[in-house]
């Protein structure tokens, strides 16, 4: 029998670093024609990505994928909202020169509806408007400053200078795919739990011929799945790899089927290397990554980018209400095959068609984490440090890094141990 490996089964072997971690370059690709400045995509889930999340991510160099738990028209509108949103990273927080009078700065903040500004004095100072949610804005501006130390934020723009955005599609809804394409989506991400299916692949192959956007196919979990997808979908622009690893996912528990993200990425790499196109058809690792360390392992395994659900679900910019429980604040997070999400789908999209009637996801809460800027800042510094250990100076060079298996004893030793915490 073959064996599956997941993130905790492996460690990053230290390698010779030629640059300092802060100089590690994170530019990569989400799909054949869509570059990313940061290797992150947000999951197409109704508690993760609508236009606000997608616009903020694109302003900072990452990509949001709008979920499809709504009518095709509403989803197309969401895409248009990102396309018409202002592009500058300096709309997350304002930028001010040291000599700008405070009154003028406060006026600009009020006019723009932006609660914090960074004044480039030395050292830089954060100004928060008295009208704003001060704690949120101060935290966001501090995170923006720490992101700036690691990475110069550049917005992801299309040929017309608009923010880039992805959107989830169903293989059997050509009308939706065309509407999203017409609305300007840059990447259409196939959103099915098991894309290694002849009907799914032939349907998505048809869609891919009809649209201008890049089409990413997934989810897949095996080498043969990737070989079949590449053979059947002529202009396939990317692969979304991983089945059953998601934090809200109960697929493996309910059905016994599983292809953990790390193994799925290694399988995809094997297939693409056999075809001589690894690096040309980008691999997106999807599901189960808890933070920068897991993302780094996925990249070293051969992925070009990581798709994150839970990590982004706690952001202010994620759809969904904040919930206070005692003194703690949470946001709702649920699987797209959970009961609540499926009920919404059939209530809002009369074209939705069930392929299965069982629930394969759960609903829960994740801690509220403030702005997505703070989440990105943490991911970027963690990822640069991780790739630094691997001896990588870029994502392509990370593919030459080494992952090693860890024993049970090594797993114990990896954590802080033998002290009173
Ligand atoms: P996370 O980052 O570990 O939270 O995983 C997010 C990923 O889980 C998504 O990008 C999807 O691939 C997957 N997913 C989303 N909803 C469901 C579900 O209901 N069941 C199984 N997998 C899901």
Description:
The chain starts with 9 loop residues before the first strand and ends in a 7-residue tail after the last helix. The mean pLDDT is 95. The protein has 2 domains: 7-87 and 155-321 and 371-413, TIM Barrel; 89-133, no CATH class. It contains 15 helices and 18 strands. Strands 4-5-9-10-11-12-13-14 form an 8-stranded parallel beta barrel, surrounded by 7 helices. 37% of the residues lie in helices and 18% in strands. The protein has 421 residues and is an alpha/beta fold. The protein has helices at residues 51-60, 72-83, 102-112, 134-150, 174-183, 198-210, 223-232, 251-255, 261-275, 292-301, 310-313, 339-348, 372-390, 395-398, 408-414, and strands at 10-12, 28-31, 34-36, 40-42, 63-66, 94-96, 116-119, 125-128, 166-169, 187-190, 214-220, 238-241, 283-286, 305-308, 322-325, 328-334, 363-367, 403-405. The longest helix has 19 residues, at 372-390. The structure holds inosinic acid (IMP). Inosinic acid is lined by residues 43, 45, 219, 246-249, 251, 286-288, 307-310, 335-338, 360-361.
How are the secondary structure elements laid out?
Elements: E1 10-12, E2 28-31, E3 34-36, E4 40-42, H1 51-60, E5 63-66, H2 72-83, E6 94-96, H3 102-112, E7 116-119, E8 125-128, H4 134-150, E9 166-169, H5 174-183, E10 187-190, H6 198-210, E11 214-220, H7 223-232, E12 238-241, H8 251-255, H9 261-275, E13 283-286, H10 292-301, E14 305-308, H11 310-313, E15 322-325, E16 328-334, H12 339-348, E17 363-367, H13 372-390, H14 395-398, E18 403-405, H15 408-414
Parallel strand pairs: 4-5, 4-14, 5-9, 6-7, 9-10, 10-11, 11-12, 12-13, 13-14
Antiparallel strand pairs: 1-18, 2-3, 7-8, 15-16, 16-17
The structure holds inosinic acid.
Residues 43, 45, 219, 246-249, 251, 286-288, 307-310, 335-338, 360-361 line the site of inosinic acid.
């Amino acid at each position: 029998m073959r064996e599956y490996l997941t993130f905790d089964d492996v460690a990053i072997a230290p390698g010779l670093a030629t640059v300092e971690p802060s100089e590690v370059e994170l530019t990569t690709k989400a799909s054949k024609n869509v570059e990313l400045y940061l290797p992150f995509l947000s999951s197409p889930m109704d508690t993760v990505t609508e236009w606000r999340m997608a616009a903020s991510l694109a302003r900072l160099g990452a990509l949001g994928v709008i979920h499809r738990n709504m009518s095709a028209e509403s989803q197309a509108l969401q895409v248009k909202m990102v396309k018409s949103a202002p592009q500058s990273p300096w709309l997350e927080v304002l930028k001010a020169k040291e000599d700008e009078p405070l009154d003028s700065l406060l006026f600009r903040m009020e006019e723009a509806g932006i609660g914090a500004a960074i004044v480039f004095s030395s050292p830089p100072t954060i100004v928060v408007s008295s009208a704003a949610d001060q704690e949120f804005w101060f935290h966001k501006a501090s995170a923006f400053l720490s992101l700036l130390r690691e990475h110069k934020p550049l917005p992801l723009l299309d040929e017309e200078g608009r923010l880039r955005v992805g959107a989830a599609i169903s293989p059997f809804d050509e009308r939706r795919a065309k509407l999203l394409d017409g609305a300007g989506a840059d990447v259409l991400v196939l959103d099915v739990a098991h894309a290694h299916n002849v009907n799914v692949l032939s349907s998505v192959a048809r869609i891919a011929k009809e649209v201008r956007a890049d089409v990413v196919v997934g989810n897949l979990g095996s080498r043969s799945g990737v070989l079949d997808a590449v053979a059947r979908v002529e202009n396939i622009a990317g692969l979304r790899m991983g089945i059953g690893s998601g934090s809200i996912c109960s697929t493996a528990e309910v059905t016994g089927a599983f292809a953990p993200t790390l193994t799925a990425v290694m399988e995809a790499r094997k297939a693409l290397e056999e075809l001589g196109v690894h690096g040309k058809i980008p691999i997106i690792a999807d599901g189960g990554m808890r933070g920068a360390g897991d993302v780094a392992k996925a990249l070293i395994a051969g992925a070009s980018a990581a798709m994150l659900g839970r990590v982004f679900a706690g952001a202010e910019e994620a759809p969904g209400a904040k919930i206070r429980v005692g003194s703690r604040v949470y946001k709702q997070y649920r699987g797209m095959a959970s009961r609540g999400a499926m009920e919404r789908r059939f209530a809002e999209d009369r074209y939705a068609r069930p392929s299965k009637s069982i629930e394969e996801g759960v609903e829960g809460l994740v801690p509220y984490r403030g702005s997505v800027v703070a989440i990105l800042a943490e991911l970027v510094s963690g990822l640069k440090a991780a790739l630094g250990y691997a001896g990588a100076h870029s994502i392509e060079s990370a593919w030459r890094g080494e992952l090693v298996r860890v024993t049970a004893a090594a797993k114990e030793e990896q954590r802080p141990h033998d002290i009173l915490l």
